[in-house]
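A brief tutorial aside. Many learners find it easier to grasp structure tokens once they have seen a single protein encoded end to end. The record that follows does exactly this for 1-acyl-sn-glycerol-3-phosphate acyltransferase. Read the sequence first, then the structure, and try to relate runs of similar tokens to stretches of the chain.
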Amino acid sequence: MKKAQILSVFLKVLSQENGDKLCKRIIKGYMDKYAELDIHGLENIENIEGPIIFTANHLSNSDGLVLNEVLRKFDPTFVAGVKLSGDNVTNIGMRVIRTINIKPNSADKDAITKVIKSLRSGENIVIFPEGTRSRVGSMIEGKKGIVLIARMSKATIIPIGMSGSEKLLPINKEGNMKSENFHHAKVTVNIGSPVVIPEKEKDEDRHLYDDRVLTHIMKSIASLLPEEYRGVYK
């Protein structure tokens, strides 16, 4: 039995409070040991009031852990794929951060409604608009859910570009998250200025407008990345 499996069993016998404390210590240990964080742009958000939608590209299951540390002041809730909850290692991380689970690659109306309600109540949210980790090491097409959430919540959108996290906790090529391990890596986090959503033109088709807004949001993320990470948004 692997360490993560043993730990998962051990956590089940602890109280929720003690289990959460242990998970935080474990994750902090991993981050301190393996991650060298290089953070830029904090001045862009120091005077911004919530609610805020932080939007970032997605390269690794470590992305949430990195951003939870970087955005600690904002105490964000993360939108996370349901399938993550089936992995022992990721489960430890998900006990450290607050999440709203969403079904990957689907129009999960219940989850989107929860996200909008959270924003309207003043919470800050982190969303990875691509909806899944990029297997090619650069940006893939975003999902339109972010457009609906932004429109309905009226929250401020802050773009974040991340590079290097794909080396911190690389994706297993066979798709087995239980086999993923941490490695020493420098992770660069670039935080941008608020995204200004373009106005809908008078006779513009709603679907075409949504496509334009999505592209605008995704390119605001891409602009914060080295060119080789920009993928379809070069």
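Self-check: The first helix runs from residue 3 to 12. If you spotted this yourself, you are ready for the next section.
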